[in-house]
Write a structure and sequence with these properties.
The complex is a heterodimer of chains A (about 400) and B (about 450). Chain A is about 70% helix and about 10% strand. With about 400 residues, chain A is of the alpha/beta class. The two termini of chain A are about 35 Å apart. Classes of the chains: A alpha/beta (about 400), B alpha/beta (about 450).
């Protein structure tokens, strides 16, 4: 029988397995669908709004009330007033509010008399995003209030509006956010979390698929179906899984950059290349793990532990260069890391082939992994000499 | 009579407890998860996030004005903790190229009229371009330049007011009309390690227990035992002793690892430990009890050993988001907010953050403790029901099988009838459906 025949026979056999055991499709298609629903609805707002900011107003003047109203009116902030600092501090410690602003007693009078009343604020940065945003919001508002005081003094001195602008703000920043102009957390996280989940699913399902043959002792049957040729058995199985995962991967690309319309600088079609490479390299990692440890339960545990690490080591939150050097090396073993670097080149800079060809080479290297363990896995398939439990 | 009941209760309880411990320690897969995930993950995550903050983000400068003010600005930005000037470029093209090659993660550009505008007392603009591939690059670039800008603004303003005839003191009072003092008490440097690790530690406990327990439940089901496995000399009926007996085995085992995770690890890696020791023990006791019942209730749905990894591994990162450690709880969509109440980790992580990292006391985490208590009671009831159902199914196994076969037969017959009506041929459906995968072995 020719290789093609063998592979087709293995693929047909695998299809029958899928039909008998729904876990394969549940674990891939349904799982990724649930994740897509979660990440795309949970972070739908893009940037949180109405982050609670505690206010302790010891002044109760027009100035302090105006400040509170202005802060409340920003898209980011929502003010909650407290009678005493102790209460507000407790609520901040409980994580109910992100920050506390203390408006000192006699603030208005002091401002009028140029006595420089000191404004104090506290931020809880343990709830990171809320804290950082509140920090930014309060800082901006206090600078604006300070500016308003100066403006009224300058107006009284008869300075014209144009000159006032120059005096209040001699230097201004003009910020451009390359690749994500609206600072959308939804796209920032979903862009990497979803392919990350896909990588995890691929590694796990591949280990499971190759490992169950050992666990249930069907490996010899598999080999016989493939005409006693291990490469055909592997090829047939992987071909079918590649089709399945490519289908999922391409749908993800479509979903993220067409349906959700997340910002993408380059050509979206090129992400299909990236996705293809991610699918294939993750499959190779899966085969490598089960080949090294041909015991389903151990291989699955190892695969699970490894693939969870990938999210952190990709470096899309804390960049890899901020990690210790020995961790930086480990980061390179995850296909997701290379997927991410490819995405940065194409999606953020639109750099094209010259930008990402190195990542392609990196991901192609994974293709050697199955070859390294094929012989070992074949022996395990024939002799079934590893513990099944 | 009563004495006997208590005696038999205790004997069963003890028997189940011992049996569960033996099962746990004779399972290699469980031990890998337990030791690797429970002991090594906290260390690994601490190593990954050891530095916590990104420092000296490399930035390219394009200075088209070349004036004294822009040069001073560049020097000051370079001196900040956040940013370091890695390249000085002649034009934007060069800087863009460096950014694309990832030699720099941001660009600061001074337009040619920068110096002129400052001299003319107008508003001079600085353009900054941030690489958004990681938001931390943006945060660093923004914080670095903004601090310098505010500082510069003040000194320029004072110069200008001085020029218009004010004294130093007067112009200082003008510029700093409302001076402010910022306090960032729990995480001064916006460190990644402090906020992330605090949330992750409690989650690790829950997830290790859940995956481990599901693994064992699945195994026992595969071996035709049940999760409510009873010792041979089992002489009573209660389900409570099964749930509590099994629970105690996990509880004790995970108490050791929880002490390691919640107390030794933070001390080892210099994370803040502001909560008192007793308070943390109280939190761990309640959290673990809740987790034990939670895991028993949910793991009763697992029928095969491997299912939990194939189907439920993706849950861990989702649970991390649901603790509200990053995306604030106030911005959760309604549905996900309610959904997050299903998991002990939501409250456990928040309580640990507030107690240990923010230095609260039991009063601070009262809401979370109460929520976990209620949750624990609900899951205790569910775990009991699971055992009850399991026992019922076992004792009625044959009857259920018969019933199922009967219903299946009826359905198949109907379909076969229909096919016969349409095509005139009678095909046996059961022979197609039940064809085993390895029929020809």
């Amino acid at each position: 029988m020719s290789t093609w025949h063998n592979m087709a026979a293995v693929a047909r056999r695998e299809l029958r397995v899928w039909r008998n055991r729904p876990i394969y499709l549940l674990g891939s298609v349904v799982t990724i669908a649930l994740c897509a629903i979660f990440y795309l609805t949970f972070l739908r707002a893009g940037v949180p709004s109405d982050v609670p900011i505690g206010i302790v107003d010891n002044d109760n003047s027009t100035l302090s009330r105006n400040f509170i109203q202005q802060l409340d009116a920003t898209q980011l902030g929502k003010t909650i007033e407290y009678a005493s600092f102790a209460e507000a501090r407790e609520d901040m410690q409980k994580g109910r509010i992100t920050s506390v602003c203390v408006l000192p007693e006699g603030m208005y009078a002091d401002v009028q008399a140029q006595r420089q009343p000191e404004f104090t604020f506290y931020v809880n940065t343990l709830y990171f995003l809320g804290g950082s945003l509140a920090y930014k919001d309060i800082l901006q508002m206090i600078n604006l209030t300070s500016g308003a005081v100066q403006r009224s003094v300058l107006r009284m001195k008869g300075v014209n509006e144009h000159a006032i602008a120059g005096r209040l703000r001699p230097v201004d920043l003009d910020i451009h956010m390359i690749g994500n102009p609206t600072m959308n957390y939804g796209s920032y996280l979903a862009n990497m979390m979803l392919p990350g989940v896909l990588e995890m699913i691929i590694i796990i399902i591949i280990i499971y698929s190759f490992g169950t043959e050992l666990k249930y002792g069907t490996s010899r049957h598999l080999l016989r179906t493939a005409g006693d040729r291990m490469p055909d058995a592997m090829g047939g199985k992987l071909a079918l899984y590649t089709l399945l995962f490519l289908g999922i991967g391409y749908s993800l690309v479509f979903l993220l950059y067409r349906q959700m319309g997340f910002r993408f600088e380059g050509v979206v079609a090129r992400m299909l290349t990236d996705m293809t490479l991610l699918v294939i390299s993750s499959e190779c990692v899966g085969v490598f793990i089960i080949g090294c440890i041909p015991v389903l339960r151990f291989a699955l545990s190892i695969g699970a532990l490894l693939s969870v690490m990938a999210f952190s080591l990709t470096g899309f939150t804390l960049p890899v260069e901020a990690m210790p050097p020995y961790i930086q090396g480990i980061a390179e073993i995850f296909p997701l890391r290379h997927y991410y670097q490819f995405y940065v080149q194409e999606g953020i800079f639109g750099a094209g082939f010259a930008g990402w060809y190195k990542e392609v080479i990196h991901m192609l290297i994974y293709l050697f992994l199955p070859l390294l363990v094929m012989r070992r896995l074949e022996k395990a398939y024939i002799y079934q000499n590893y513990p099944k439990k | 009579m009563k004495d006997n009941y208590i005696k038999s209760w205790l004997r069963d309880f003890w028997g189940i407890f011992g049996h569960e411990l033996r099962t746990i320690f004779s399972d290699g897969g469980f031990l890998i998860i337990f030791f690797f995930a429970g002991l090594a993950y906290p260390i690994l995550y601490n190593l990954i996030y050891k530095n916590g903050v990104l420092e000296d983000t490399p930035v390219a400068v394009v200075d088209n004005s070349g004036c004294a003010a822009s040069r001073r600005f560049i020097r000051e930005v370079d001196a900040t903790r956040e940013v370091s000037i890695a390249y000085r470029c002649v034009n934007m093209e060069e800087a863009k190229d460096l950014m694309q090659k990832r030699k720099v993660n941001g660009i600061i550009m001074f337009p040619s009229d920068f110096g002129e505008k400052i001299e003319r007392m107008e508003t001079a603009k600085i353009s900054i371009y941030a690489d958004m591939s990681s938001f931390l690059y943006y945060k660093n670039l923004l914080m670095g330049t903004e601090f310098v800008m505010l500082h510069e603004i003040n000194s320029i303003q004072i110069e200008r007011y001085n020029a218009s005839g004010m004294t130093d003191q007067q112009s200082y009072q003008m510029v700093k009309a409302i001076p402010y003092e910022e306090n960032i008490p729990y995480n001064r440097t916006f460190s990644y390690s402090i906020f992330l690790i605090s949330a992750i530690l409690m989650l690790i406990i829950q997830q290790v227990m859940f995956y481990g327990m599901s693994l064992l439940t699945g195994t026992s089901r595969e071996e035709n035992r049940s999760l409510a496995t009873l010792p041979e000399d089992f002489s009573g009926h209660g389900m409570g002793r099964v749930v509590l007996g099994r629970g105690l085995a996990y509880w004790l085992l995970f108490m050791t690892i929880s002490l390691y995770i919640a107390i030794i690890i933070p001390a080892w890696f210099g994370l803040p430990q502001r909560g008192s020791f007793q308070d943390i023990i109280v939190l761990l006791v309640i959290f673990l009890t809740d987790c034990v019942f939670f895991c028993q209730a949910w793991s009763s749905l697992i029928t095969r050993r491997e299912t939990v990894f194939v189907l439920l591994l993706f849950v861990s990162p989702i649970l991390l988001f649901l603790t509200g450690f990053s995306w604030p709880t106030c911005a959760f969509p309604k549905f996900w907010k309610w959904f997050s109440y299903l998991f002990p980790s939501t409250f456990g992580c928040q309580a640990f953050i507030n107690l240990n990292t923010a230095g609260g006391d039991l009063e601070t985490i009262r809401f979370q403790l109460m929520a976990m208590t209620v949750q624990g009671m609900v899951y205790y009831a569910l775990a009991n029901i699971a055992v009850l159902v399991e026992n019922w199914v076992i004792s009625h196994r044959e009857a259920i099988k018969g019933k199922r076969r009967e219903v299946k037969g009826k359905i198949e017959e109907r379909i076969e009838d229909r096919i016969e009506k349409r095509t005139g041929k009678r095909i046996s459906i059961s022979s197609i459906l039940n064809k085993p995968i390895d029929s020809d072995i």
